[in-house]
Amino acid sequence: MSPVSGAGHSDQYLCVQKHVEYIKNLDSRRDELEYWLTEHLRLNGVYWGLTALHLLGCPQALPREDTINFVLSCQRENGGFGAAPGHDAHMLYTVSAVQILVMLDAVDELEKRGLGGKQKVGSFIAGLQDEKTGSFMGDEWGELDTRFLYGAFNALSLLGLLDTVDVPKAVAYIQECENLDGGYGIHPGAESHSGQVFTCVGALAIAGRLDLINKDRLGGWLSERQVDNGGFNGRPEKLEDACYSWWVGASLAMIDKLHWINGDKLASFILRCQDPENGGFGDRPGNMVDVFHTHFALAGLSLLGYDGVEEVDPIYCMPKAITKRLLK
Ligand SMILES: [Zn+2]
Asked: Which residues surround ligand 1, an ion (CB under 5 A)?
């Protein structure tokens, strides 16, 4: 697929500086109600904001030392990370912590100032693998979800510790989640959903087992997610949403089928979701912006090779330059 050129959208352009300012200002709103309502998302929020800033070409826009200090302050005695200081450890926040430290080139801070170094983080994650099924739980309470399996593979491979878990068993579990329509569900027998497709395909990519996927069948189901206005929905009959630009687009990229969708129409839909006045992206044109959709909208534009957006790694959802250097 040829890269989408920003010049092709004369009525629409990416408001880079507005988005950078929007993300930088997220942390200065501590007195606002919204800040406290979203406290449980804080470590994830830092990952979304930091990745978006990297993709916008402003990786230094957040203060590095403060960011590292905040990440380390979220670690618990069991090695995992909570959403914010004092919160229980959970897989999803632990993955964000690892990704943030990798992006800041600060994984060695785990050895210097963390609790038990990267081995301790790895053992928290490995301890969440379910012996019976090979899948992963989010925390000690035991809910299984392919999101957690993907997260475990993502963080462990970034730490060089993927061999501490039973990879073949987890891969077999993913295969059980595959449906006849080519998609994947949250557990065996559950309907296909593009969020789950992304996590299953991403985990297979990290395991080096993309050969197990029926790429034509899955590519067909994924490309049917594009609706008339250019956006993607998560499953049939649902509304389009800017964040599915990522879940669907990255899945297509991993199986080399991104050229099966209309990239120009998708880029145009994503750009209509931005707030050109105050920065940030919402789920649909005209809706309230948030850092989650800002991050995934930019990552979607990056997949399309959009002018002025840095290249994203479709497997890790991190800047490609960083994963390439780390995982070579
Ligand atoms: Zn969304």
From this structure: 241, 243, 283
